[in-house]
Write a structure and sequence with these properties.
3-stranded antiparallel beta sheet, 18% strand, 150 residues, single chain, extended, 6 helices, alpha+beta
């Protein structure tokens, strides 16, 4: 399974840091692709690696790992970090990223885009907060409601 990427736009990421990011579309098959932002220079670095590999006769694939190997590696790192349970998986990382974005007041449509979901309903599954996460989100709301009047 090969990956090809196409830069489709440039945007400023932060008004204070003016870090540039490019929208990129990763195509795994004609009907299967994901879009997201990548830091400036990453696409150029990947292109140089691919060119070098082609010149030296190495595989033209950017990654030699299969996705199940990547899954196992993420789980190994999570075990080494003493993270356990459902959070200790790639899906757990995606959920944590989504919750962190939600807690930081990132708009839902942006989280949907960053997670690569075509449906907001899929994003809602990742953003199902409970326990400590739910309390953090509620606390953020209470801080907003209880702020002093201007």
């Amino acid at each position: 399974m090969g990956y090809s990427t196409k830069a489709t736009a440039s945007q400023s990421a932060s008004p204070t840091k003016q870090a540039e990011a490019r929208a990129v579309k990763i195509v795994r098959a004609p009907a299967l692709s994901r879009s997201g932002l990548t830091p400036t220079g990453l696409l150029e670095t990947l292109a140089r690696l691919q060119l070098r590999n082609a010149r030296t006769g190495l595989t033209s694939k950017l990654w030699s790992w299969h996705r199940t190997t990547a899954w196992r590696r993420v789980c190994e790192v999570m075990r080494a970090a003493e993270v356990s349970g459902p959070a200790a998986t790639p899906k757990g990382l995606r959920h944590s990223f989504g919750i962190a974005a939600l807690t930081a007041t990132v708009p839902l449509m942006m989280i949907q885009k960053w997670l690569g979901h075509s449906s907001i309903l899929t994003t809602a599954i990742y953003l199902d907060a409970s326990g400590t996460e739910e309390r953090r989100i509620a606390f953020r709301m209470w801080q907003w409601e209880l702020r002093p009047a201007p």
